[in-house]
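User: Predict the structure for this protein chain, please.
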Amino acid sequence: MTGPRTHASRDPNVTAISDLDIFARVARTGNMSMAGREMGLSPAVVSKRISLLEERLGARLFQRTTRQLTLTETGEGYFRRVVDILSLCEEAEDYVSRRNTKPRGSLKISAPTSFNRLHIAPHLPDFLARYPDIEIDMQLTDTFVDIIREGYDLAIRIGELEDSSLVARKLCNERRVISAAPSYLTRAGTPRTLADLNSHNCLIAGAQDLWRLDGPDGPHELRVKGNMRSNSAEFVRAGLMQGLGLALRAIWDIGPELSRGELVVVLPEYQGSAKNAIYAIYPCREFMPAKVTAFIDFFAEILERDISHARPHAPSTPRADAPTAEKTALKMASKGANA
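Assistant: Here is the predicted structure, written as structure tokens:
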């Protein structure tokens, strides 16, 4: 009976796991030198291993130019399958060493900037105290990242979820309202109907120039326009606070400002689509690492408590000292009469 193959007797036509790891790192970084540094290999060794892999497969995996390295169409398909294989190998090792029973290791996360500042970062001390063997690698961006290509364990995404090969878990619902600073409403007037928004300056976050709203008469899709657009939610939020226009913002983002009267809800009968929610997105794996499960479970409980039950404050019931648009207008009129 033939015994198990040793490394020395490995079939040369069978790809080694180490070659798959090298390929995946080169695909993620787009750079052989960087991939080599991660693995302690020289660029020449990495290049040679990739060339041998392509020769063994009989297919070109990368397009090479003097300035960049990109995957071919075949390489793209191979990469997605290799990621799954490497994930299963990691999970198998975790199982054997019993590491997967205790959350540990580096957890690479992509999250929106404002959302992290308000609802993730404040709770990280408690999370890390509960899971001291987890290391957080938090990358902040208001644009979607390819979590498989860039090696993320999970990403936080907000809005209507599109069809995807990734796995998603809804953490909580999200509610959006149209709002403005009292100074803007004093200057530009308060819209009374959706049609009135056509004559207002609407601040646009990313590609959000199509506002999806639910109202008493059903759903609406409204194409808005304005003189400010940014891929940064923080930038749009700052413009809103400075009275530069109207914006469709989430309650989790502007709730305190609404409570203090620094912002006012307009057209309160119309709110963002009920399909909006906050999700955790992660690669499709049969066995999810404990560190990912720990993070999702921890923040699902917090967000359900802090966000799902939050309610917008309508402009009809401001605090007594809140600078509403109506109060500001009266004050200015009074000053004009006494001038």
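Residues 213 and 219 are 6 Å apart (CA to CA).
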